[in-house]
User: Fold these one by one.
Assistant:
Number 1:
Amino acid sequence: MARTRQGASKRRCGIPLAVRLLPLPESAVRQRMIAYHLTLSSLRLQRGDLAHFVTMAQIIVSTSHLFDAGYGRARIEGLTEAHDALERSLRAALASGIWGIDPATFELFAELLTLHEEQLHVAPLEAVIRSSQPAHLSRADGIRSVRRAAA
């Protein structure tokens, strides 16, 4: 029984502590970024869907959490601008039926992906996992609060 407890303290979600303290492997970062850039491309070409918007929302939230944890250099205004642009684009998509983004939003999201990629190269796996947990994905409301407090 003590053996199980000791193993549980060293492993979380089946991942050894030593691995959780390292950044994601390069291949994992590359795989994620390809998927994210395909999402962004679909939105830019006005050929996205709700899943693409959800993915961008998750990226905004994860990036914000990693930023709060000290990974990456960004302007907090840039994170709130990306959040606001996503909301505007989603409202426009729901109204028009065209699931895409405008050029200014594309630029914001491209900068966001650049920051997120930098974060994924340096942040330990543990921080990346924590930033992507469902409980943390409600962060959008928190981002909005930061913007209001700064105004």
Number 2:
Amino acid sequence: MTKETHSYRCVGIIGHLYPGILLSHRSALEFKPTATDNLFLTYTYSRKVNLPGITLNISEGPKPISGDNLFTDGLYTSQQERALLENLQESRKPGPNSKVLTIPELEERLEQIVSIKGEEGLN
């Protein structure tokens, strides 16, 4: 089994373990664990959960709102606007351990949105 297949299977059970949990921050934009196997989520409480091959970094925060998307059973993902705002938060950890993308990575995402959807799509 490849690392990606294993990670996907783990993601598939997260909604069953934590119904209504939200894939957030960089994970909501990348849709995969970081290079260091971290996944960032928002739920009703904070907790770090080590599963085989993946670490769930759960932060306490607002539940899914109108516009957030159902990803798999019980697991939602932040809508693009919410995910971009989440990624503007400060993080004490740099690189792949950070829950947020770097400013250059965010700028690249915004440029992609403009090139695909135009200025109207960005607004």
Number 3:
Amino acid sequence: MPFQENTLLIFVFNEANSGFRSGATLKPSAWTHIVEGLEKTIEKRLNQKQLKNGWDYMKRQYQTWTKLTNTTGYGYNSVTRIINWPDERWEEYLKANIL
């Protein structure tokens, strides 16, 4: 995306916390507010589909990161910002989830 992801996160969270969601999704009016707010902030107009695609991408990244860091016996080193897995474990994970 052509801007920092945290900018989108701030707008999405603000809309969700302001009652502009329906269940687990945002209402169409929320996306309108987000589009308009981002246009003012980044001085570029992005449409709802572009923003939703960015949101979905970040959500998948977060879900993957959470799964990796919560795997029993291994974890995330917050100092080095590296997931501490031996090569064999990475190979198992990649075979099961990527390849």
Number 4:
Amino acid sequence: MTHTAVRLVDVREEPLDVTEVLASLDDDASGGLVLFVGRVRDHDDEKEVSGLGYSAHPSALERLLRVCEAVAEQHEVHGVAAVHRVGELEVGDIAVVVATSSAHRATAFAASRMLIDTLKAEVPIWKHQRFNDGTEEWVGSP
């Protein structure tokens, strides 16, 4: 059963919308809402990134839901939201949006930090980076 604080969880090919995530956590009881937006940057270490693709295992959505539920159970949050993009992305595109809301900012900050860190560690979504020098690499793949 889904924890009632989990408001939005998805893995999708369409561009991500920060306002959708914010709206999903809108409530009058929350004094703090912490939002993290991960974007495709133009470099990785010393190499210039030309673009990348994200691939997800079929279990990625279920695993993302479990991560959101764990965050909700470990923190006194009113809302949890996480959306990750898959497919081909360009520099500047939004790859992931996570947010939590709570009565107090400290709780929302801690919960959001746990959410993005656990997502990156446990949800099977892999990044295929392409560099301007013609090389490429997989990040986060088993």
